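In practice, a research group might receive sequence data for several interacting partners and want a quick structural hypothesis before committing to experiments. The following worked case mirrors that situation: the sequences arrive first, and a predicted assembly follows.
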Amino acid sequence: MGFVQEMEQARRMVEARLLEFFIDEGLQTAMRYSLLAGGKRIRPVLAMKFCEAAGGTMEEALDFGCGVEMLHTYSLIHDDLPCMDNDDLRRGKPTCHKVYGECVATLAGDALQAAAFQTVLTAGGNWHHDGAARAACILAEAAGVQGMCGGQYWDTLGDGQPHTEAELTAINDKKTGALLRAACMMGVIAASSHRVVEDNCIVAARDYATNLGLAFQIRDDMLDVIGNAAEFGKPIGSDVSNEKSTYVTLLGLETCEHRVLDYTQKAKDALESGAWRGSTEFLQKLADSLAQRMN
Amino acid sequence: MGFVQEMEQARRMVEARLLEFFIDEGLQTAMRYSLLAGGKRIRPVLAMKFCEAAGGTMEEALDFGCGVEMLHTYSLIHDDLPCMDNDDLRRGKPTCHKVYGECVATLAGDALQAAAFQTVLTAGGNWHHDGAARAACILAEAAGVQGMCGGQYWDTLGDGQPHTEAELTAINDKKTGALLRAACMMGVIAASSHRVVEDNCIVAARDYATNLGLAFQIRDDMLDVIGNAAEFGKPIGSDVSNEKSTYVTLLGLETCEHRVLDYTQKAKDALESGAWRGSTEFLQKLADSLAQRMN
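A structural hypothesis for the assembly, expressed as tokens:
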């Protein structure tokens, strides 16, 4: 099976599982609207493929992955709110608050965060399992003030616009990197519930995710300039019109392209430090594919 | 030691522990502002006293209790937002968004929810512990769409104003009851980490909390009419001016008073079905004290 087919197979498993969590009623309707709005599902796919690399099955990491995706979706709903980035479109569709109003969107995000932890802690129907507690703990740390929320805070407020590449990287590492790291590490932990997994695999997963996250964010900033709105799923040029400081405004397009390739290589190199039972080929190809993505 | 002293002792333990979680910097400043704004700390005290009743120590349930209090605080911050209840005062102080703005208040709430789970899962520094996972799972369920967020949804939107006592009770049982239930059950679970605890104690804790929650909410509605703003910590008569359907508007003050006494008695009766190793005297007195509270 080629990379594209393998990606599609994993994504389809995620979509099918996500469909099972909520019903079309009350607040759950708004939660479903955003959770099932498509997207690349990179975080759950990473969890599942790291589980495979560590000798497990994709199934074993599926609910950990879905939990991470719920947490990611909540963060998108809240980021899009008028008091935050005030975005009307997400993945080419009206944002949650545009459809259901601010109050429901806030609550839908809040409930998705709780659902994320519930999903991870009940993964495999077995909540009294060390791995689930450990995974949930990693997720909580990544989601909180030391991770995603802290990154979003410094991004939208903090001391005003970030001015150096190092500052921007510190923010993005929290805002985007933390959750990617959690997804990858949780995938390895999912494998450890049925077999011994070396600690160096957790470290490798963490370092892969850190570099993948930075490459991903720089590519995102590039696509805001060189992308196509329909393909990208959000308006092009919004960073410039918002006078946002991005990797492109700081470094220029050419240096950005080098940085993306650089971080992508570091991500792939990080994989080599793990004593894997399975193959890391998909993870290497995924890094390459994200570096060249147009959406 | 009398009830008031015992309550004060437990509250002081909670205040001291809550002080240790965040520093006065960035987003954490806003989280601390709301978390350390006082309040009765009923939820952590309940967790600690149920742990004692089940034969444990208050210490053993302290971090579970602090996690529940963080979750409660996040819900207050988000409930106060302009897109929700739009309140300017909470516990006699300006609400979080009044001080830090909507964006930071939203993020502070989000980060407190994540911190709640992190705190429960790392309670006692021992995350790979069945009890912590079980407690976090109970908390997640209580916080989510089947519990607190669902209750808040039906309260602020849903099918418009609730019209019957049964509808109002269903909403309050989710909005307030779910988290009180979680606090009480988590206290019992905290005790079970070092000794055998009978399942009937968990059931008793759950039923006590359900009835306590309803008594608490009815008393709250009464205080909106008969209370004193300075003592109550929020404006009196806001339910009436918001044309909100409350227990008082539905049943009148006199019936409300009967209901409070009724539910309080049921809460105390529920304790009798548990095979406790410790005393439930404090829990009984706490129920009585909440029934008569003026704030």
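Before designing any experiment, note the following. The longest strand of chain A covers residues 89-90. The first helix of chain A runs from residue 3 to 18.
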